[in-house]
């Protein structure tokens, strides 16, 4: 009899150990989840409060356990969370609360995204609930940091090209300055010779007049007046052009490198396009011709200018790299990039079209995925378009792409316009 009891007890002990191990594994798994995870019983009493919930709400699991979720000292803005719990239980379906603000017991403001899921009751108990959530403030902070890092990386890659772009006009400004200095010296000598001749004539000194006239003829013979008459205006015009190019690049770089505050305001997106084309010139000038077709009717758009500049930078650089890839494979091909703007119903639209190799549907469907890239190792992080998508979504607009293998790619950026908006930017 005793041996029978022993044989019966051993499997039970093994099963209990397995259950204990399974329970421990579940606890470890739930504890490692980075999302907020709170489970409630049918009376909204806290049954589980994971580490992320502790961090976000500033409470320990022990202090929250068994207490009414709405008596934890968390001050919710509005009734959305309570209503979501009621609706989830009633409909027996998940209910999302996309953005809800709260103030923790410690007085910290939080912006959360929550999903309330119903939990089947055990026995006669009322239905419970599983609340999953994320700290949207933290997510947005990470996005802004990623945008800033991406912008700084892009500016770093552009630095050598910018230096070259500035160096070229500076070189011919320097050359023209040297030429004008020599021309001034020659013309001054000629003026001085004629001045001495005039003085001799006014003095009535015939020998002096003859000597001064001979000197004036000699200096005039050494000075190519026709050449100077043609080249001096050209040198001045080229110098002004060079100074203007440098000024444009510096202005565009100042706009690009300004850290910004994230402040939303009305701005001229056509001007942002011109700035980006200026600072990226060294990336495309050897492989493509860039054409601008910017609508003068485009209104000012509402957004964060430095974030939009980052999106434009990503898209234009991608176009330049795509064209470079195709021209390298097909040296006879003429690369082209068209950047245009226009009004479409409800939106201001920027389009960046290239005649690069294009993408098939499988690649095109993944280009906005974080860390997805078709570039070689070290040539791209796969974050640029994902960040661009997040920025455009946050602006209430969007970014789309049309592409066909062998035909090229066009990216469309759309910025929402207010009803009746008529305030225009400069074309």
From TrEMBL:
Keyword Transferase among UniProt keywords: yes
Q: What InterPro entries does the entry give?
A: HATPase_C_sf, HATPase_dom, His_kinase_dom, HisK_dim/P_sf, PAS, PAS-like_dom_sf, PAS_4, Sig_transdc_His_kin-like_C
Q: One Pfam family name from the record?
A: PAS_4
Q: Which GO terms describe its molecular function?
A: ATP binding; phosphorelay sensor kinase activity
CDD domains under this entry? PAS (cd00130)
Reaction(s) this enzyme catalyzes, per UniProt: ATP + protein L-histidine = ADP + protein N-phospho-L-histidine
Enzyme Commission number(s) from the entry:
2.7.13.3
Look up keyword Calcium and say if it applies: no
Identify the PROSITE patterns for this entry. Answer: HIS_KIN
Any idea where the Histidine kinase domain is? Answer: 161-419
Query: Which of UniProt's keywords are assigned here?
Result: ATP-binding, Kinase, Nucleotide-binding, Transferase, Two-component regulatory system
Name used for this protein in its record: histidine kinase
Species assigned in the record: Solidesulfovibrio magneticus (strain ATCC 700980 / DSM 13731 / RS-1) (Desulfovibrio magneticus)
